Amino acid sequence: MSAPSLPRLQHIIGSGIVALVGIWVAYISYTQQPSEAFLFPRLISSVFAVLAFWTFGKACLGWTKVGSGISGRQFMNLLPGLVVALVYIFWAAKGFGFYTATTIAFFILLSLYDPAPHTALKSWLKRIAITAVFMAVMYGLFAKLLTVYTPREVFF
Amino acid sequence: MEFLFYMGDVFTPINFGLLLLGTIGGLILGATPGLSPTMAVALLIPFTFQLEAAQGLILLGAAYTSTVAGGAVSAILLKIPGAPANIATTLDGHTMAQKGEGAKALQISFLASAVGGVFGVLLLIFLTPVLAQWALAFGPSHLFWLAILGVTVIGSLDSKSVVKGLLSGCIGLWLATIGFDDIMGAQRFIFHPALGGGINIIAALIGLFAIPQVITMFAKGRHNDGAEVIKVQKHPVSGAIRELARNKRALGIGTAAGSIIGLIPGVGGQIAGLVAYDQSKKFSPDRDKFGTGHPEGVIAAESANNAMVGPSLVPLLTLSIPGSPTAAVLLGGLLIHGIFPGTDLFDNHPDVAWTFINSMLIGQVLMCLFGLYVAGLAAKVAQVPQSVMAAVVLGLAVFGSYSVQSSMGDVYVMAALGVMMYFLERFGFSAAPLVLGLILGPIAEANFIQGSMIANATDGLAPYFLGGPLNIFLIAVVVASVLYSGYMELRTRRYTSKEEIMA
């Protein structure tokens, strides 16, 4: 028997996580009190767990036909952007202040994924200009027009 | 004819200004590859908080209508459908553009969209009040089954895998139970203070629709510069009108197919466009010309995908069942303004309901006028590199979800759901049933609890929820939609594997 191919292994891991969540939701629904509050979750979680097991079983047997998984190259492409986005959302936006963090994150993401050469001064100036225009629009929209008070924290 | 009474409200300066803004913005957003109508409407919801209910809905409705039509711009000039609804448009539209008839293709697509769209909104106007009255006969058990029907129909019809579609719906229904329950006030599935008040619908919508798109753009890496746009030569609008008049059959087929398909929950604009294209080809004496830059193909596809917009709102405004993912986002927009669809909407808020519906009618005309003249500008926007687009959408998503309740918790929920949805989508799960579960979950639960109380005091749970002609009919539709989708999935797979063997 050959080792499972990458997409099949990914399907097993992905559907396995969903199945674990399904079991856990069902377990909580059937064990937590007051039971009246968990009546509807019980109904849902039972169907959730059955469908999740069905999907997991299909993945284990290699019968899954839908979903292409993620290739190594796609994952390596998205990883830096995802890390920057998550640091921005879960830490920097609150730590630095919304506008400062957004400016930094926007500029880094733009620089990371912009196909223009990283050695040309012109493309860096373009990125700085795009970031400045974007932040001016965001500030105008949210701070001035919608009067949304954002966390200021360390910086502006 | 009650709608005529509220027609003047559309033309107040603020309302009309918002209609113009939504229409122009929608055309530009629709023409931008990677921004779907659903995502565009979800990103716009935070901007409606400062507005009155009718004003907010005017902005969202205009954006919905014109993003679907605007998607034709990139379909024709870039061969990239702006939305799934524009897939059929690429077949002949792009070939026309390659032959130097880009302007003509754009003009007939906007004219056909307007004809189909106006017909669809008229259906919405005349069908909705009748069905809303009919919905008065619904008790808790029927409303419970209706909510389940909404989730299962979208789950089974909108997904490539029936089981994964239904599982997505279940995940959505479960997410809807997070927070304090309404009856006992008990905590359910709260692991972080951000989840104390439950999952905020708007933050969830932004996360589920916008973040996976942003991550998809990241996954493409640095090789995703703006696409090459075909240059558009001038073409007289009168020529396009004559072309449309010559192709009345395609226009009729597209409009009829779009209107009928729009009424069926879960069957979106993509199916409407493809079915209309296929039927138009079958009935055309020039069927060999389809795919070679034939105007009939563009007319059929574009009239259909806009004709479905109005009818897709009929089940939403009467029974709270969104007919499409974008309609589900609109439902979120209604709920945050404290308005519930159904008879409540037409009895207690007729001004909101009719101003919104009328604005969609006027919006179709505006969309056509602007589309005819600003399509070239919209095409320029379509050239924006995806690196810029990803960063802009991420910024808007974070600010938008924060502005809902000025809470970082909503931003965390948005990001967590978005990242989760990206990975789930890679394994064949889809966002639409999950969102439906999240939105319809509270309705299903409230009616389930209310129904259980009535059932305990009367005949018991099983006879109350499973008996009666309306319950049986709704259950039969749930079962039939799941079985039909399962059958279609198996048939598609068998057909595909046969093709693979032949190859």
UniProtKB/TrEMBL annotation, chain A:
<feature type="transmembrane region" description="Helical">
    <location>
        <begin position="128"/>
        <end position="149"/>
    </location>
</feature>
<keyword id="KW-1133">Transmembrane helix</keyword>
<dbReference type="Pfam" id="PF07331">
    <property type="entry name" value="TctB"/>
</dbReference>
<feature type="transmembrane region" description="Helical">
    <location>
        <begin position="98"/>
        <end position="116"/>
    </location>
</feature>
<protein>
    <submittedName>
        <fullName>Tripartite tricarboxylate transporter TctB family protein</fullName>
    </submittedName>
</protein>
<feature type="transmembrane region" description="Helical">
    <location>
        <begin position="12"/>
        <end position="30"/>
    </location>
</feature>
<feature type="transmembrane region" description="Helical">
    <location>
        <begin position="75"/>
        <end position="92"/>
    </location>
</feature>
<feature type="domain" description="DUF1468">
    <location>
        <begin position="13"/>
        <end position="151"/>
    </location>
</feature>
<keyword id="KW-0472">Membrane</keyword>
<keyword id="KW-0812">Transmembrane</keyword>
<dbReference type="InterPro" id="IPR009936">
    <property type="entry name" value="DUF1468"/>
</dbReference>
<feature type="transmembrane region" description="Helical">
    <location>
        <begin position="42"/>
        <end position="63"/>
    </location>
</feature>
From TrEMBL, chain B:
<feature type="transmembrane region" description="Helical">
    <location>
        <begin position="316"/>
        <end position="340"/>
    </location>
</feature>
<dbReference type="Pfam" id="PF01970">
    <property type="entry name" value="TctA"/>
</dbReference>
<keyword id="KW-0472">Membrane</keyword>
<feature type="transmembrane region" description="Helical">
    <location>
        <begin position="161"/>
        <end position="180"/>
    </location>
</feature>
<feature type="transmembrane region" description="Helical">
    <location>
        <begin position="20"/>
        <end position="45"/>
    </location>
</feature>
<feature type="transmembrane region" description="Helical">
    <location>
        <begin position="461"/>
        <end position="484"/>
    </location>
</feature>
<feature type="transmembrane region" description="Helical">
    <location>
        <begin position="352"/>
        <end position="375"/>
    </location>
</feature>
<feature type="transmembrane region" description="Helical">
    <location>
        <begin position="434"/>
        <end position="455"/>
    </location>
</feature>
<feature type="transmembrane region" description="Helical">
    <location>
        <begin position="105"/>
        <end position="127"/>
    </location>
</feature>
<keyword id="KW-0812">Transmembrane</keyword>
<dbReference type="InterPro" id="IPR002823">
    <property type="entry name" value="DUF112_TM"/>
</dbReference>
<feature type="transmembrane region" description="Helical">
    <location>
        <begin position="57"/>
        <end position="78"/>
    </location>
</feature>
<feature type="transmembrane region" description="Helical">
    <location>
        <begin position="387"/>
        <end position="405"/>
    </location>
</feature>
<feature type="domain" description="DUF112">
    <location>
        <begin position="18"/>
        <end position="436"/>
    </location>
</feature>
<feature type="transmembrane region" description="Helical">
    <location>
        <begin position="134"/>
        <end position="155"/>
    </location>
</feature>
<keyword id="KW-1133">Transmembrane helix</keyword>
<feature type="transmembrane region" description="Helical">
    <location>
        <begin position="256"/>
        <end position="277"/>
    </location>
</feature>
<feature type="transmembrane region" description="Helical">
    <location>
        <begin position="189"/>
        <end position="211"/>
    </location>
</feature>
<protein>
    <submittedName>
        <fullName>Putative tricarboxylic transport membrane protein</fullName>
    </submittedName>
</protein>
